[in-house]
What does this fold into?
Amino acid sequence: VGEIIPDDIEIISSFETVGHIAHLNLDEKIYKYRYILGKILLDKNPGIKTVVTKTGNIESVYRTYPLEVISGENNLKTVMKEHNILYNIEIDKVYWNSRLSNERLRLSLLIPSGSLVFDLTCGVGAFTIPLAKLRNCFVYSNDLNPFAIELLKENISLNKVNAGQITVSQKDCRECIEAILNTGIDTLKLFGMEKSIESYISRTKNFYWICNLPELSLSMLKESLPFRNESLKHGKG
It folds into this structure.
């Protein structure tokens, strides 16, 4: 390897893994050696079948970025396990960051069991699935990305989550907030629930909003203020 790659180029020793995929983020200095580095990484890590690197920044409205397969199989859909939950992920079509694993669990465990949660940018279900499965919450899950919604539905089934605990919506985040508030946070309308389940949620007196979109979440809340109603006074998150 030393005869091919200059001595001052550091061989990649750490990388993000998503199932069978190794995801690199190479700087300009090392980028031209990507195929060699990809082959080395593939040879040294038996569990890795595909190696990719970013070729640009996040520019898509779906928060995806351009990727190049630099070694191995051209297969960007994978299944990974995180905190005993399985996720189908297609990394060129949806946003996923494995480094946020502990933060996802931390937030999920902060929300009381049995709460009503509005996951406004749910992706493939990184909050939705653990909240429903581990915390027995009822989750209204929304994302603009149609690929994320399809994978979310697969993940609900894959993890044997009670489908009645999750309502799936594909809207712009602002439109979703408006639609929710226009119902008066009526769980019968939002979930099509039986009255007994609605009463169970009412006793918790908690509902939470998750908007995992750092650059826009505060502006979305501000723009949605005209749609506030009396129901929102009890909300948290």
